[in-house]
Amino acid sequence: MDGHEKDRELVGLYLSRDKSAVEMTEKLYGRRLAGLARSFLSDRRDAEECVNDTYLKAWNSIPPQKPADLFSYLARLCRCTAYNIIESQQAAKRTAQLVELTREMEECIPDASRDTSPSDELISALINEFLDSLPRDKCDIFVKRYWYGESIDMISAETGLTKSNVKTTLHRTREGLRKFLEEKGAKL
Fold it and tell me: Could you tell me which CATH class the domain 106-183 is placed in?
């Protein structure tokens, strides 16, 4: 039996809702799908989850789909699933990093929820004024961290400073910003 005949038989099993379709799919294409998933995902467990999700998506989409080339169809499902996993992981990392950056900045930015807090526009103008007063290297480090969200490691590599020096510079700059804002009437 050639590949096209096997695909037609497998698709027929999916169309008739025969659960052995998934088992046969795994036997025929499991190794290739696992290799494809691993080419996108570095974690073995993520790759396994991706392949299992691919089987589920195939089960849920055939019918109404009736692919002529089953492996190509499965590969597309696998690739899209891998992209979704990567996107989800990156979103989680961005969220964790945002929480960390927010916590650091809470040391020096007033709580906007208070009635006596200055407006966002005023705070923005004051921060820009403060940054303009900094030496270029300190301003760059601050902006890399709090505007672009770069990690301490990345800033260290880009600037040639040690991680400890980057952390110290950021801490002192935040302290300077806090004092500057207090002097300008923006109370914490």
Answer: mainly alpha
